[in-house]
Amino acid sequence: MPDGEPNSQSTFEKIFKAYFGLLERPVKFVRENVVEPARLNKENHYYHRRYRRIPGVDECEIGDEICFYEVNKQFKRDKMVDGEVLNILRQRKVECGVYYGEDKKKYCEKEFKDYEEAAANFFQKYGDLGAGGNVIDAYMKQKHRLIWERRHGPVGSGMKATE
């Protein structure tokens, strides 16, 4: 628009705006008057599904297949989330090592430590379960580890001397 001219529009621009105004106005009206007031929680928008946490497998009644199914699904979701966290930490460790090259021991100590700790925790919880491992197997593994620690001390520290 040249200097000094008032805000003038060509005939084509006026037709163009009128045509798209016919399309935009009803959509805008429905969004502002129907969709947005219908939202229950306007300030929190999550783009992933949030599942409610359910009690552990130790609180299920014997023979309650529905409870076992729900607990097992939660266990599988938790395993997938923990696996993705481990992948992210592994990627951070690798990227830091590539970035710093020879000085990675100096600058990437935190990333290496975080990854090793997360990997140890992941293996402690899910290791040796196999692909078909379920929540009962994990619960029994935890129980056996606790019994071992009560009798012999922390796993990996060697057995106590017999008295």
Automatic annotation (TrEMBL):
Major localisation: mitochondrion
Topology of this chain in the membrane: Peripheral membrane protein
Record flagged with keyword Transport: yes
GO CC, any one term: mitochondrial inner membrane
Family matches, as Pfam families: NDUFB10
Compartments, as annotated in UniProt: Mitochondrion inner membrane
Entry keyword set: Electron transport, Membrane, Mitochondrion, Mitochondrion inner membrane, Respiratory chain, Transport
Family: Belongs to the complex I NDUFB10 subunit family.
The protein's name in its UniProt record: NADH dehydrogenase [ubiquinone] 1 beta subcomplex subunit 10
Species assigned in the record: Capitella teleta (Polychaete worm)
